Every structure is written in C-alpha cells, then in structure tokens.
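Fold it.
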Amino acid sequence: MTTTSMHTDIDTAADFLASSSIIDHDHPAVAALARSLAGASAEQTARNCFDWVRDNIEHSIDHGRDEVTCVASEVLAAGTGLCTAKSHLLVALLRQHGIAAGFCYQRLLFDEAGGAYCSHGLVAVWLDGHGWYRCDARGNKPGIACAFTPGRENLAFAVQAPGECLYDEVWAEPWAELVARTRALRSIADYRAAPLDVAPPVAAANRRIAA
C-alpha cells in the first residue's frame, strides 16, 4: 500500500488516481455524479465534490441510520455511511475527475465516559498551489462546521484527549483491516457497541516518502 507524507511533493500520482474494489470510481452512478459536479477548475470541482458528499450523504450515527456501507458506489446508492465510508465516496468522485486524492485518519475518543476509541476517516486532495489539503466531509451538525478551505485546514475534530492522534500520512487505499472490519459489521448498532479502533498498516510493502 502506498503512502506519502503531508509535506512532500506528489510523485506517486498513479496510486492516488487508481480505481479499486472499494474506490470504484468507474461505477456508472459514481461517474455520472462526478460529471454533474464538474467545476471551472480542479479546486472548484474538488469543492463541489466535497460539499456534495458532506451535505447529501447522511452520517450513519448523526441520522440514526443502521445500514453499513463501505464501497463508494454502495455509499452513494444507500445515501448513508460512517466517516470512513463517506471518505471512500469523496475520493472516488475526485479520482474520476483525475484529481489525486487519498485517505487520512485520526484516532479519537468515541465515548469519553466509556473510554472507547475509534478510527476516524478523512480525505487529502492534491491541489496545485497548495499541495496536500486535508478535508473532512463527515457532515456538519451543531458544534461541527467543516468547509473546503484550501490553505486553512478545517477538520471536524481536534486532537485533545490522551490517546488521540492525527496520522500525518496520506494512504492511497483505505486501511485494509478497517475495511474488513467495517464489512463484517451487521449494523451500525454493532459499531456503536464496539467502535472500530484500528492501528495503521505496517506491512513491508508500504512505501513511505520522507518529508
């Protein structure tokens, strides 16, 4: 799995444009939506894609949805997903436009009272003049107001509590263990009972680009 640093020039563009079994950006419904979101520039197109996913795909927990989605096209079809699932769709839309995009993650407290942690997914997009820009399309609600503001990072959650972190890397593919465990969930109720707290992949095949 290819990774890159937030602070390096992109030299693995093909990996961050690829289609896969999870990021199926060539699916007819995903491709059609992507075409409808085209803007006058790559940055405007990226903003349109971000805004659409943020506002039109319901965050499973915020909206009380119990369906589990993971593959970009199924997120679009169901209209719902967890933060990670929404990131899969956003990356698919961006890549369909030839805009390099990848995955970033945070480890956050899910339940302060119970002390459970979760893996929170967001997106990094490569924009000329800005480099990698992280954005979080999980969906706004009271206390969270994420917008697409290249040059100024605007994430949903700050790292505050002990044990929380924001990983610096951008991954070309979503974490395999996180995908597998998501697809094994029977319902979002199962996720609420046992949030997915996954460590970054450390396989020897990973290629890290130094900052």
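Confidence is low (pLDDT under 50) at residues 204-211.
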